[in-house]
Amino acid sequence: MKKLEHIGIAVKNMTESHLLFEKLLGVTAYKSEEVLSESVFTTFFKTDSTKIELLAATQPESAIAKFIEKKGEGIHHIAFEVENLETEIIRLKKEGFIFVDEIPKKGADNKRIVFLHPKNSNGVLIELCEEIK
Ligand code: ZN
After folding, report:
1. Rounded to an integer, what distance in angstroms lies between the CA atom of residue 110 and that of residue 27?
2. 77 Cα–ligand 1 center, Å
3. What is the pLDDT of residue 12?
4. 31: CA distance to ligand 1 center in Å?
5. Mean pLDDT, 10 residues at a time, over the chain (133 residues)?
6. Global pTM?
C-alpha cells in the first residue's frame, strides 16, 4: 500500500461540520461532491500528510446514516492508496481478508474504491483506493 490517503469521518450536519473543520484545520475544503452510489455527500480537506473526508448521509438507508444511528458521529473509515486495486484485492483475499464488495466502485475525489470488511480488521473499516488516471 502506498500511503494513508484519507480518514473518513461520519457527520450529521455537513454545513456545520464543514465550517468546523475549516476552523480546525485552518484551510478551506478543496472539494465537495455527492456520491450517488453510496448516498453520501462528501467534503474534502488537505493537510500535509493526508486528507480528511467528511461524509453525510443523503438518504436514510445510507451506510453513513446507519453508522451514526449505531455509533454516533466519528471516524468511519481509513483509506489507503494502492497502485493497482485488482492486484491488492487478490493479495488480500489470499491472506484471508474479506471485502464488503470486492468489485471496485467509483468513489469520491476521482477514485476507484473497495472496502474491507471490518470483522477481519479489528473492527476498522478500511477503504482501498486507486486514483483514476
Ligand atoms: Zn473514503
Report:
1. 21
2. 7
3. 98
4. 13
5. 94 98 97 93 96 97 96 97 96 96 91 94 96 92
6. 0.94
Phi/psi at 14 (nearest 5 deg)?
-65, -40
| 130 alpha carbon – ligand 1 mean position (Å) | 11
**Are the CB atoms for 92 and 70 separated by under 8 Å?**
no
Q: Say what the pLDDT of residue 2 is.
A: 86
Q: According to the model, what pLDDT value does residue 48 have?
A: 94
- Tell me, in angstroms, the distance from the centre of ligand 1 to residue 79's CA: 6
pLDDT on residue 1: 82
Q: Are strands 74-81 and 126-131 parallel, antiparallel or unpaired?
A: parallel
Q: Among residues 14, 53, 61, which one has the least CA distance to residue 37?
A: 61
Comparing CA positions, the residue from 112, 114, 91, 111 lying closest to residue 101 is: 114
* CA 95 to ligand 1 center in whole angstroms: 23
Sheet of strand 40-46: strand arrangement: 31-35, 40-46, 51-57, 3-10, 74-81, 126-131, 111-116, 105-106
